[in-house]
Amino acid sequence: xxxxxxxxxxxxxxxxxxxxxxxxxxxxxxxxxxxxxxxxxxxxxxxxxxxxxxxxxxxxxxxxxxxxxxxxxxxxxxxxxxxxxxxxxxxxxxxxxxxxxxxxxxxxxxxxxxxxxxxxxxxxxxxxxxxxxxxxxxxxxxxxxxxxxxxxxxxxxxxxxxxxxxxxxxxxxxxxxxxxxxxxxxxxxxxxxxxxxxxx
Length: 200
Prior knowledge:
alpha/beta
């Protein structure tokens, strides 16, 4: 419905939301509508296993045990970064520029008028400034906690500690007019279509 609009130039749209907000679900709906979506967090996981600069950097920071048979030990990495802000900043500084460059390469291969970058901390890292617009997906905290506990088989306390590491929705809402409420009340598709018509 929207993908053949002639905008004159491609717009890059950031799609973000706190952990468990449902932003990946919104991204899959956009894909079904025909829009290309770059999944930053998924791609970062792939690059952490494949990219020599990331591998070298993580080994320097945390020792060789951070990789097991060429695969990143995610549990160990999570322990290092969620318990230590400095570690988290160092890992972000290592990985984010490489993911951003990878996104630019990906964009250059796309033909659509709107392309989307789905990522958790676009506001927190300042990456939001590189987009033509930002969409924020929000959900009630209770729902977010339940989703993440189910998905990652972790405790409520572990989820809360990760939520606290991200900016609150109230802060992010001030930075974009495009908000999708994933609260089970308003149909998602209607909201997505309304945002898309504003973006074009």
